[in-house]
Design goal:
- The protein is an alpha/beta fold and 139 residues long.
- It has one domain: Rossmann fold (3-Layer(aba) Sandwich), CATH 3.40.50.
- The chain is built from 5 helices and 5 strands; from the N terminus they run βααβαβαββα.
- It has a 5-stranded parallel β-sheet with strand order 2-1-3-4-5, with helices on both faces.
- The mean pLDDT is 97.
- Bound molecules: 1,3,4-trihydroxy-5-OXO-cyclohexanecarboxylic acid.
- 1,3,4-trihydroxy-5-OXO-cyclohexanecarboxylic acid (DQA) binds next to loops.
């Protein structure tokens, strides 16, 4: 059985009530339940932290044994050399995900420290971006 983990960064614990016009009105927990039943042959774990170092610790912890990481580093995407370095350092493929189309938003969101070392990127499909990222790791 494939072992995947979704790692969400800062403020994504507020999905459902945070700027719903951008991020939708569904909580991540509800969405995750749907994903788990859709991919019932896959082990999908979930981790969220608002703290940069905790996200790096988690990437290091899973990054040599899991089959795939779906990473939405949220605002740290655009600022964190440390998370970018962690993605480079580990062996497990990382798919970078964003709910919103970061390229249609402010210019500071166009920069990503994750993308250069990601296996691929899924941006702008709402929560469906996570589903597409999992699908990409299936084959
Ligand atoms: C985000 C986009 C980021 O720019 C923003 O800081 C987030 C969420 C997204 O999923 O659309 O917190 O990563």
């Amino acid at each position: 059985m494939k072992q995947l983990i979704i790692i969400n960064g800062p403020n994504l614990n507020l999905l459902g009530k945070r700027e719903p016009e951008i991020y939708g009105s569904e909580t991540f927990e509800d969405y995750l339940n749907g994903l788990k039943s859709k991919y019932s042959n896959t082990q999908i774990e979930y981790y969220q932290s608002n703290i940069e170092g905790e996200l790096i610790d988690k990437l290091q912890e899973v990054g040599f044994s899991y089959d795939g990481i779906i990473l939405n580093a949220a605002a740290y995407t655009h600022t964190s050399v440390g998370i970018g370095d962690a993605v480079k350092a580990i062996e497990t493929p990382v798919v970078e995900v964003h709910i919103s189309n970061t390229f249609s938003r402010e210019e500071f969101r166009h920069q990503s420290y994750i993308s250069p070392n990601a296996k691929g990127i899924v941006i702008g499909f709402g929560l469906k971006s996570y589903d597409l990222a999992i699908e990409s790791l299936m084959n």
